[in-house]
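Lecture 7 notes: from sequence to structure.

We start with a single chain of 272 residues. Read the sequence below before looking at the structure.
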Amino acid sequence: MPKTKNYPDISLLVTTYNWPQALELVLKSALCQTIPPDEIVIADDGSREETKTLIDTIRESTSIPIVHVWQEDKGFRAAKIRNKAIARCTKDYIVQIDGDCILERHFIQDHLSLLKENRFLCGRRVYLDPKATETTLSRKKLSLWAHPSSIDYRSYLNNIRSNTMRQLFAKYYGRGVLDYISGCNMSYWRKDILAINGYNEAYEGWGAEDDDVVVRLFNMGVEKCCIKGGAVQYHLEHTYNSQDRLQINRELLKKQLEKGTYRTEKGVSQYL
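Now the structure, written as tokens:
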């Protein structure tokens, strides 16, 4: 599906932290898309110099603008760095991923296939096992079938790409406000994310910051649509962030659900 004037220009927002080996594969997969992004904005939550060096190298190999937005490492602050990156996005539509998820080449095309005004999209991911992750990183290319169990059985259906399945599931799948949310596979209109003032920076530490964004978009009347049968991405296995603030973040989310409002106070507007 070639890009035409019927589709908005795309900002690809990539969140990363101190894993340049994974980020290299993710960025290469972004540059090989059937519909490439018009710009890439990297939300860097405090990576060391190796990540900057990698980004500079890849920037030299492509005509697609790559913007590196960095903040000091003070723990997990995804909400804050995503706000800073959103403020630097210049295109009308934002596709949001993480720097540990390699994109199937139709990923952006599949997001665009369900694009509508007053709608945001949530996709899923395919989990690679540790051995497949190790092989993929060492070979510097996606090695799905290097091992029989390379794809976690719980996410096997997320590896299927089918237009019929995608269109059918878009009507019925994951319609509840908190169903099937993954901040590593989302897309939304820039005007909509600005209207809710982006991420709530009260969320620090891992957990629930993406749920909060979805709840507030939902409260504003933006339709939630889940992608199944497309927008395939492959998650590289790694150790997980501390969840020591998860209960605090869940309480914040509970209060947001009770309030029913859509605009957060401390959000992206401070960077515009």
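The chain has one domain: 10-262. Keep this in mind for problem set 3.
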